[in-house]
Amino acid sequence: MTDMRQDESDEMFDEGDTTLSRAEHREKKRNRRILIAALVLILVPVVAVGGYLAWLNHIVTNNVKQELLLPDSPKPTNNEGQVVEQPKDNGMNYLLVGNDARPGDTGSRSDVMVLVHVPQDRSTVQLIHFPRDLWVPIPGHGEAKLNAAYAYGGAPLLVETMQNMLGVEIDHVAIVGFEGFKRMTDAVGGVDVNVAEPSTSGGFRFAKGTMHMNGEMALAFVRERKQLSEGDISRGKRQQAFIKALMLKGLSKDVLLNPGRLADFVDAATSNLTVDQKLDVGQMRSEAFAMRNLRGGDIRFITAPFDGFGWSKDGQSIDLTNWPKMKELGEALRDDKMDSYN
């Protein structure tokens, strides 16, 4: 299990680079009032730019789609089928899903699954990455990889699966197509990403070190896993390294102070965004504004607990879920005490 704070180490983001240069440290100090919320890549520009707000709000409102992404039975249940009661005032839980449906795909896949916990006092944010190959029980389908829930029953079944495995209610869901990340990358003129492990993917050669990537390169970079040392786990770290690079570029003055580039970035982010039936743009904006004082050290990154790798009875390569630690994680989320979880 991986667990760290951004101000202590950048390993989760930079895939091994745990030191900050003086220039990076100064840049972090200049950007202390970082806005992080469930939809950070979309909401930060909208909240931060003041005079452009009405214009960008119009783009967001027109682009964001709402669908029935939450299950009919919203409450999590335990192994005996009993509803797990949720304490009041225990914060909010957002499930972010990255859907990598390539042209010609006959089924949908959820290749990125991040649960964002926002505590009641909005003082911190915890982002929990759930590897897609976690071996878990899926309601009505027996045991399978976690991302199979999305293929079997879309977002509602994925939400139900994750709620039951954690004993925690998920309040809202947002789905972003990988093509959206590609467009966002191109809209900001490309991003500089730290590559920890070399690979050759999609016709591109990725060498260890920092590389400037356009949208097509970035998409190939975050999709690769077979050539990486820890497969899906290593890919998760790649995705985090890319997301950090995109966040920093999206928050840079080159984007925020350039109306055309900013509009392209927001349009790219929201044109591939779908949220649940209960989440509207006004609520998204209010949530981001409530967390406007967050700093880098207030953001915690966690990988859901697993016990290494193994094989299912039918021969699939899987990530073995650490159920005692998963129970602890669920209790910390349910009681709004993630700061004490380790």
Automatic annotation (TrEMBL):
Composition-biased stretches (Acidic residues): 8-17
Region (Disordered): 1-27
Residues spanning the membrane: 34-55
One Pfam family recorded for the sequence: LytR_cpsA_psr
InterPro entries xrefs: LytR/CpsA/Psr_CW_biosynth (IPR050922), LytR_CpsA_psr (IPR004474)
Residue ranges occupied by any Cell envelope-related transcriptional attenuator domain in the UniProt entry: 109-249
DNA repair keyword on record: no
NCBIfam families: lytR_cpsA_psr
Assigned protein family: Belongs to the LytR/CpsA/Psr (LCP) family.
Protein name: Transcriptional regulator
Organism: Intrasporangium chromatireducens Q5-1
